[in-house]
Fold this protein.
Amino acid sequence: MATLTENANWGTELWDQYDNLSIHTLKGIDFLERYGHFVRDRATIESEYAYKLRRLVKNYQPKKKDEEDYQFTSCRAFKALMTEINDMAGQHEVVAEDLQANVIRELTALVKDLREERKKQLQEGQRLSQSLQTQIESLQRAKKAYDKAFKEAEKAIDGFQKADADFNLSRAEVEKHRANMAHKTQTCDQAKNEYAVQLQQTNQLQRQHFRSGLPEVFRQLQDLDEKRIKNIKNFIKGSVELERNVFPIINKCLDGVLKAADIINEKEDTLLVIEKYKSGFQPPEDFPFEDLSKGGSDSGSANNLNNIQLGSKIKDGGYTVKGTITGKAMKKRAGIFNIFGSRGKLTEVCMAIKNAAIADGKEDLSELPPNQRRKKLMQKIEELKTKVTQETAARDGLMKMKGVYEGNPALGDPRTIESQLNECSHRLEKLQQDLVRYQGYLDEVVKGIQSGNLTNSVTGSPRLLNGSSRIHRNSGGSAAEENSLSSPESGLGTSHTSLHHADSDQDQYDGNHADPESEYYEADVLPAIGICRALYAFEAASEGSIPMAQDEELHLIEVDQGDGWTRVRRINGEFEEGFVPTTYIETSLFNT
């Protein structure tokens, strides 16, 4: 294959390839248009991909009934992941829009311009070729006329010579042949001159056609084709740049996915499961041996057995003794959290905890296990407090408006506020009554836990920090509210740093072992029984618990009593005592 220099052009190298160049340029423009269709379809795919990603995220958003499960770190990580995927979908939309605006639009306009320019140049080439063809045809006619005149002139000369040599012909006939010869000779000379002129014009036009006219047309077609090729190159590079521009944001989205994965903590989820499903009941005691040979039977044992049988709720998979789950019910669970299926059921325990009060029609939630009942009652109390605050603010606003109207009747009639004020007062009174009632329920639960029947302590005493439990002597529901915050799980203990309240000067305490004149009763500080080290960092999220840093050492005050919490005291700094998760520490007891 011959190597062409940069100065090589179609006009000189391809002077006789008009038809092939016409076909080549047509194919080139068709290829450019096909590439444009490819980019258009690519943009469509990007747009559809972005739409499907958004649809995917929308389909897997947590349903309202599953929101409670999204307190777990794995679920929260999955929710954060979906947010990042949604952002990535937006970047694919940006790519589709930029391809449409910066590539497809320009490419479509370029195809149109190239087609028009090619058509113009081909028409110019056809005009030049037609002119040359016309001139060649004129030359052929002139040559044909010259050939005919030359033959007739030769024939006339031959006839005159024969007539002049024939003595039998008269002088008039010889002169007639002479005149014919002269005429034919003159006609031949004229045809010869016309042929010479046409030949000169044809050669001149042909040189101009192949040396300047047609090469210029081919040069324009060459520029057109090179422009097409160059723009394909630019379009490809431009498409790459458009994608590179969104890579940093996509990388940030991927980093966000990694951060979401980092928040997953199996230990924290384990503690959340304990807090969510813990009933507060103790396992049943052993069955006593019944010696029938001594006469009679152990009625207490029989009663115990009967109580267990009555306390069981086994029907198509339900509860066994004191709220635990049967194996049959466990088999019916569709998944761990049931957050990936649109028609799945909540687990049996979740359904029982959330709907037991509604199904049985009991507003005190007495059908729930103690711990779950306490949590639900506390949530209800917080909701009522929020509503009381809102209604109080609304009532105060109406009273201020009424006062303004009374002071300036021109602004409005105070009587129009009376009905609204009465309705607000009635709602507020009802809410306060509900608040007192639910605080009484909560007080009942807390007293039940502290009574010794439903305690978390092996010895049967409630897990309270010495000197940390404040109990109103005769204060009704408010005592329940304060005692309900006395455990690491919002249950059974209060940290040293969480004891001071603004209304402490009005509190009264149980004085069974204290001086009646004393405002507080505080027991002695318990001695340390060992040392523990924090395996993980822990942020205290409930009353009674204290935070700790990873690898921090603390005094061990009381070992885990079966509820998953261990009582510790800070070694350095100010006095601070409370509960931490047992799974977050390693302990070492002192030798006694």
Q: What stands out?
A: The beta strands are 530-534, 553-558, 565-570, 577-581, 585-589. The radius of gyration is 53 Å.
